[in-house]
Design goal:
- The complex is a heterodimer of chains A (357) and B (366).
- In chain A, 69% of the residues lie in helices and 3% in strands.
- Chain A has 357 residues and is mainly alpha-helical.
- A two-stranded antiparallel sheet of chain A has the order 1-2.
- Chain B has 2 domains: 133 residues, Rossmann fold, CATH 3.40.50; 191 residues, Rossmann fold.
- Helix content of chain B is 40%, strand content 17%.
- Classes of the chains: A mainly alpha (357), B alpha/beta (366).
- At the A-B interface, helix 3, helix 6, helix 10 and helix 12 of A face strand 2 and helix 4 of B.
Chain lengths: 357, 366
């Protein structure tokens, strides 16, 4: 006797059963986990919910946390629509942060105040795009595997950033501590509603809409999809795959660069340790949980951010280890993958004497 | 309202004022929160902070409520600190450098909350900072190594900023003093070779760098990272080591001769007591052995009694507040006189130190 995964005749994603298929196992796994560490599962979930949505401050912090996740999620998604795996969002994020910090430190003073923020946004995008340029060229020109090249560039970016804030860009008044000086006021992204929610949120939402429109409703989006799905067909249609690959990777890198710009100019207000904390890699999870749909990316980013921010309260209020929310994050990913499989396939027990199809 | 009612109300009011309810007489339960850099079992920096929290609970447990949050990095610091402030915590400790500016921002919005920040340099009317003179412990462990005749030490250093630089210098000054007293021959130009992790903790690189130093025939490995992995690597290769920050021997590095360790507990207790008694004022606190902010762990059995005695004698001086570690004449690696004879490096000079003392091999990268 063995188990066999079969394709269903009628497959489709219906939202209600799908949500149940995902939520139930995650909540159950969480409950087991809470029991194991000696906490009341219902109370623990209440703490998490309260921590994420209990008041306006907590909600605003979920939004703040979601900003870089949205942008790196979009970055991964747009490349993956073309079957390009951009694992280098972390490095592109860092490079976007470096570019924005460079302008904020050394040009913001000389520029008229209203021009500073647009220039920072451009600098962030350009920094990320530039960091994706070499892997993009290698891919388009010599078909070098972009998974490896983009990943390797992450380490280079982090070292470059460290060099800058330990060395030439170090705050001269900072008593030798690593980190640049704090930026001038004109280089701080505007914050809203007396919270830390900054301009990056609207940039991210705008980018999601723009990508949704251009991927789904323009010839460019059509080309990208065709090149991704079938390179042969694309060649037959005379699409220049190389050029589109470069363009898509530059956009992807630029989006990740915007995430770095947002963190540096909206949250840190300087370039310092603690910028490269894995948003680039979280973006991969966000993109795939969103099924590469740009409109779903912000929602998934919010869900993940809620889990992180709410999970933090487990420790502050219920004195549970901080890592529990990461375990839940893992459960969520597995449940969604499983739900995806089971919405198109079913498990069947096959007897050995039975003839396979 | 007639006169009798008025009289009755006055009487009741005056009794209430004269004898406040029993609960009021008791000191208010102080709520203390800690933002921590990493997890409490990181075997280094955060474990040391957590040991301090445990000490605080043991001393004042019935008078305080304690909460903490792990893994608070720069981007999250403001949320975590503001969250505690909003929940009405009376004292909030930020235990790593990255918490400084976020804490300052929150401190402005919560003038009645007391903020204490570790290892930074900014203060506010309701925010103090604190740190410990770890270099004193590093001097003593260097002295111990010198007395035992180690003259080719390999140091796995962390970030090339004043704090570790100061520690390398203090260790080297102690090492040279010990070697001088041991009567052995040594090359005064280089007794301590430094390589940099450029991180506070990086177990894989700690191991690699320690193994590289051992293969280059260094006779002692000095750990400076928060994690004990460079000491563990030394033990695995049969080379003795000096621990750092937390007791490396406790985490398996049995070859460690001694570890100078952070001991935050007494300071935490002091701050909480001051807040209870309304005597707290923001200050830039920098204590050492004199206030037990650092300690030496038990010596390894291989440390000879005579060496122990000499090290403990130096420690006793430091406990009395007599700290002449950075007394001149001190020369840097290039032979330039940095601290003239008859004077002593000031705290400001120590806090901004960016030169390596004669005897160190290696440079400050940037």
């Amino acid at each position: 006797m063995r188990l066999k995964l079969e394709k269903k005749a009628h497959s489709g994603l219906r939202i209600v059963p799908l949500t149940l298929m995902i939520a139930a196992p995650v909540l159950l796994a969480g409950a087991v986990l809470f029991e194991a560490v000696g906490a009341d599962p219902l109370a623990a979930y209440a703490v998490m919910l309260q921590g994420a949505l209990g008041n306006w401050f907590n909600c605003s912090e979920v939004l703040v946390k979601a900003i870089p996740l949205m942008l790196t999620g979009l970055a991964v998604a747009v490349a993956a629509r073309m079957q390009l795996w951009n694992i280098g969002c972390e490095g592109q994020l860092v490079c976007g942060g470096i570019f924005a910090a460079g302008f904020a430190l050394y040009a913001a003073d000389a520029l008229p105040a209203p021009a500073v923020i647009p220039i920072l946004i451009l600098a962030g995008f350009a920094g990320g795009a530039l960091w994706a340029l070499i892997p993009a060229l290698l891919k388009a020109r010599w078909n070098v595997n972009e998974i490896i090249s983009t990943l390797m560039f992450n380490y280079v970016a982090v070292i470059l950033m460290q060099h800058l804030y330990f060395g030439p860009w170090r705050d001269p008044m900072g008593r030798g501590f690593p980190g640049t000086a704090m930026f001038v006021r004109s280089a701080w992204l505007p914050r809203f509603f007396h919270t830390r929610i900054h301009l990056g949120l609207f940039i991210a939402l705008g980018a999601a809409l723009l990508l949704y429109y251009s991927l789904g409703h323009t010839t460019w989006g059509y080309r990208v999809t065709v090149i991704g799905l079938s390179p042969q067909a694309a060649r037959y249609a005379n699409f220049d795959a190389g050029r589109q690959q470069i363009a898509v990777l530059l956009i992807s890198g630029g989006l990740a660069g915007l995430a770095g710009m947002g963190e540096v100019c909206g949250i840190h207000l300087r370039l310092q340790q603690g910028l490269a904390v894995g948003y680039g890699y979280d973006g991969i999870i966000v993109a795939f949980l969103a099924y590469l749909n740009p409109l779903a990316v912000p929602l998934v980013a919010l869900l993940l951010a809620g889990l992180i921010v709410g999970g933090e309260q487990l420790q502050a209020v219920a004195h549970l280890p901080a890592s529990i929310s990461m375990v839940l994050e893992g459960c969520l990913l597995l449940a969604i993958l499983a739900a995806t499989v089971f919405s198109t396939h079913r498990l069947r027990i096959v007897r050995d004497d039975e003839e396979g199809p | 309202m007639n006169r009798r009612t008025l009289l009755a109300i006055t009487a009741i009011l005056s009794i209430l004022l004269a004898f406040p309810p029993a609960g009021r007489a008791q000191a208010k339960r102080i709520k203390v929160a800690f933002a921590l850099l990493w997890t409490i079992d990181d075997q280094g920096w955060t474990t040391a902070a957590y040991n301090g929290i445990e000490y605080l609970k043991k001393q004042l447990g019935d008078q305080i409520t304690v909460s903490y949050t792990e893994k608070v990095r720069a981007a999250d610091a403001e949320r975590v600190i503001r969250g505690y402030a909003r929940k009405g915590y009376d004292i909030i400790f930020g235990t790593t450098f990255e918490h400084m500016d976020p804490m300052l921002m929150v401190a402005r919005d919560f003038p009645k909350t007391v903020f204490e920040h570790c290892s930074g340099y900014k203060t506010a009317p309701n925010m103090g900072n604190y740190f410990a003179r770890m270099y004193q412990g590093e001097f003593l462990s260097g002295y111990l190594a010198g007395l035992m005749g180690f003259k080719n030490v390999g140091t796995v250093a962390t970030n090339p900023i004043p704090e570790p630089i100061r520690g390398i210098n203090a260790f080297t000054i102690g090492l040279l003093k010990g070697l001088r007293e041991s009567g052995r021959s040594y090359d005064a130009g280089h007794v301590n070779t430094v390589v940099w992790l450029k991180a506070w903790r990086d177990p894989i690189n700690e191991t690699t760098l320690a193994e590289t130093l051992i293969s280059r025939k260094h006779d002692l490995i000095r750990q400076m990272a928060d994690t004990p992995d460079s000491s563990l690597a030394a033990c695995a290769k049969g080379v003795p080591a000096i621990g750092y920050g937390a007791d490396a021997a406790k985490y398996g590095a049995k070859c460690v001769l001694v570890s100078p360790v952070w001991n935050w507990g007494p300071y935490f207790v002091k701050v909480v007591r001051q807040v209870q008694q309304h005597t707290w004022k923001p200050e830039a606190y920098w204590g050492g052995f004199d206030h037990h902010d650092i300690l030496l762990t038990a010596f390894n059995p291989s440390v000879p009694p005579a060496v122990r005695q000499k090290v403990l004698a130096q420690k006793a001086l430091l406990e009395k507040g007599i700290d002449t570690i950075f007394a001149g004449p001190l020369y840097d690696q290039h032979g330039k006189l940095r601290v003239p004879a008859g004077s002593k490096a000031s705290d400001k000079e120590l806090l901004t130190m960016r030169w390596l003392v004669k005897g160190v091999r290696g440079s400050i990268p940037d």
